[in-house]
């Protein structure tokens, strides 16, 4: 009987089933419905209908996403932005780094504003540092959200630099600094793809703009690093990458490190297990949770490596004091 109904109606009925057992027993009840189980487009439509989620990652099928239960935890306002609209957003970002005159209002400072991520929208507005509901100064970004229902913004505040924020979910998207709250893998990957595109440097043929963007990145990352001084430094970062990063932060080099490859810190046959013979200052350095999240979302990780906690909270001052004494302003 059910199988004679139009596809859309079948979806509407099936999306209401909260119990997976019920869903599978209906799908198994006749041959034409059983065919849906093998059809990933069906699971895509079901996820879209039920959770409003329109994005997924290559590593998992829509069926896997549905079964994992992750779809329920993901921001349904995030979109799979096309390359063209991301390029426009990035041009706006670069432009804002060079000149904020005439944008939004006089409250816009370089360290507290955000970019609306809605395709076709070019709004850049002021906002509170943390953008949360009880923010002291909500700014024109929130007004823009209220007037237009555009939900996703790219935050450009110093401590949350390059963080995607959803006004509707009232939550950051993807990676952020609280390790006890893990976002679903698909949301993290989408967020990372967007942010790494946005964080890419301008081409060599525009050296002035390139230098401006490098300087801004440096200033932001210096602030992030100094801000973390009073926090527990527990996350292990491979030393060569770390040295390259510090050289960038203190202005010794304009070359930023690429994606972090932390795999050297783990046993070759067990990528989840830290080697026992690691020496701090030689094999690795320690960073706090915000820097870890920043590295994950902006620099990215190579070779499927991880950033893990060494378990032992330590305070390391070398790189941070070097920063304070050398180039911080
Ligand atoms: Zn959302
Ligand atoms: Zn404003
Ligand atoms: Zn907008």
TrEMBL record:
What Gene3D superfamilies would the database entry show?
A: 1.20.1280.50, DUSP-like, Zinc/RING finger domain, C3HC4 (zinc finger)
Please tell me the species this chain comes from: Mucor ambiguus
Which named protein is this? DUSP domain-containing protein
Q: Which Pfam families match?
A: DUSP, F-box-like, zf-UBP
Q: Which UniProt keywords apply?
A: Metal-binding, Zinc, Zinc-finger
* Residues covered by the DUSP domain: 211-319
The UniProt entry, under SMART domains, shows:
DUSP, FBOX
Which ranges carry the UBP-type domain? Answer: 73-192
Q: Report the InterPro entries cross-referenced here.
A: DUSP-like_sf, F-box-like_dom_sf, F-box_dom, Pept_C19_DUSP, Znf_RING/FYVE/PHD, Znf_UBP
Q: Taking every annotated instance into account, which residue ranges of this chain make up the domain F-box?
A: 1-46
Q: Annotated Gene Ontology MF terms? A: cysteine-type deubiquitinase activity; zinc ion binding
